Amino acid sequence: MNETDPAAAESGRAHAAASDQLLARVIREESARIVAALTGWLGSLDLAEESVAEAIEEALRQWRTRGVPPNPGGWLTQAARHNALDRLRREKRYREKLAMLADPPEAAPLTGEPDERLPLLFGCCHPAISPDAQLALTLRAICGLTTAQIARATLAPESTVAQRIVRAKRKIGATGIPLRIPEGSERAARLDIVLTVVSVMYSEAHLVAGGDAAADRDLADDALWLARVVAHQLPREAEAQGLLALLLFHRAREGARAVDGELVLLADQDRTRWDRRLIAEAQAVLEEAAMLRRPGRWQLHAAIAACHSDTRDGGDTDWLQVLTLYDMLLAYDRSPVVRLNRAVALAEVDGPQAALDEVDALGRALAGYHLWHAVRARMLRHLGRRDEAMAEDLCALELTANDAERRLLEARVDR
Amino acid sequence: MSQYAILIYEDPAFYETMPPEGWAAVVDAHNTFTKQVSELGGSLTGGGALAPVTTATTIKGGGTVTDGPFVQSKEALLGYYVVEARDLDHAVDIGKLCPANGGGVEVRPIVNPSTNPF
């Protein structure tokens, strides 16, 4: 993926219809900066974000057919300012603000400090906001997605998404959640929430085939972009680099993971379809992170992904290394899903029975998780307990919401 | 600066079973806390310890008076502070120091009711 200033490169073609991919790139470059600038001007994130969201909807309608204007940032800023003033005049709860406003920020392109996006991001991912709302608000205020796009990409009803965003913004305003990058001892824990939101954003990417493609956004693109912004802005934060490396490793495998809409397991993936350029970038980022000598869970996740990326085929994997990294990861993250993934490596090192014991110990926490059943099925099959394995695969199938995963499991049950 | 309420929710059993020296330690802890608020750059503008839940009398919307607290739960509202703080993070820093070993605290902004905050 080429990230070099798409807005500047493309704005010359002002009158050609714009592709949705281009629109997504332009909008996410500008969105958070404008929200941040208008929040400073209006003293209200709620009002600022609402006005920018409205401007983005207008832009999507106009730019798709007429093309992106030469100065998209200026266009969006002006439209958002206009919307804000309109709302101030219309809505009683805002009206007294109108008289108190200073001069509006420049409508010219916002070339100011890019950092202003990060305080906004930390505000959106404040622990006083629920995780679902952190994700939804980040997608809207930082990445510039419309409510409809968020709803489609996260498979949530549009009204639910809208409500989450409204509540989160009101909470930020009413409780005085500061929009700033936390300092000192708070920083690490707060950064971890931000990185978790970005990671969830990546894994939530559901492309709904056959839908209105024009309205869809690939959250994986947005997550990778946001991971880059955070890593770039906080170069001394090893974990921010770790998450970027992790997402780059995953992105590199994307072409082999889904072939013609069908999922392919890591062991069976055609390594020639992996994006070597992204893998090299991921390795470089991870090495930079390691030099900061501040290990953490995202770097370990990335290191595990790096092990897999070194393989020529599935049988080539250094499972002892993978297992060792998982053991280190447990010091930071003892969540059942991490332990389940570790069990897969354990099976390769100590055999399926040891792994099955570990998987069974997680049953209480993960019985509703389809991959717990799928992993258990695999261990049972390796132990020759075919009937039980089949029953577990059927359980997994029943719990799977994703069509591609369902077909993968169906193929296994039919076998 | 904004005003925040720090609401102390705890299991009353924590205090019911407490020996006298335990209670003295609780009082000490609260005295220390009230000093820490200003050390953190905030200020204390109000607060109070509440009598046990068994003394509560509830008046429902229709005017019916009944014995007991408004909401029955394991943890009950046992006391509160009102503090001035810069923002939520500052109020939470203060709230973290508030003694509540039998439960926890809730931090809520206090609003100017001249406009409807809902």
TrEMBL record, chain A:
InterPro entries: DUF6596 (IPR046531), RNA_pol_sigma70_r2 (IPR007627), RNA_pol_sigma70_r4_t2 (IPR013249), RNA_pol_sigma_r2 (IPR013325), RNA_pol_sigma_r3/r4-like (IPR013324), WH-like_DNA-bd_sf (IPR036388). Residues 190-290 form the DUF6596 domain. Gene3D superfamilies: 1.10.1740.10, Winged helix-like DNA-binding domain superfamily/Winged helix DNA-binding domain. GO terms for biological process: DNA-templated transcription initiation. GO terms for molecular function: DNA binding; sigma factor activity. Residues 28-93 form the RNA polymerase sigma-70 region domain. Residues 124-172 form the RNA polymerase sigma factor 70 region 4 type domain. SUPFAM superfamilies: Sigma2 domain of RNA polymerase sigma factors, Sigma3 and sigma4 domains of RNA polymerase sigma factors. Keywords: Sigma factor, Transcription, Transcription regulation. Belongs to the sigma-70 factor family. ECF subfamily. This is RNA polymerase sigma factor. The lineage of its organism: Bacteria, Bacillati, Actinomycetota, Actinomycetes, Micrococcales.
From TrEMBL, chain B:
It holds the Pfam family YCII. It comes from the Bacteria. Residues 3-111 form the YCII-related domain. PANTHER family: BLL7171 PROTEIN (PTHR35174:SF3), BLL7171 PROTEIN-RELATED (PTHR35174). Belongs to the YciI family. This is YCII-related domain-containing protein.
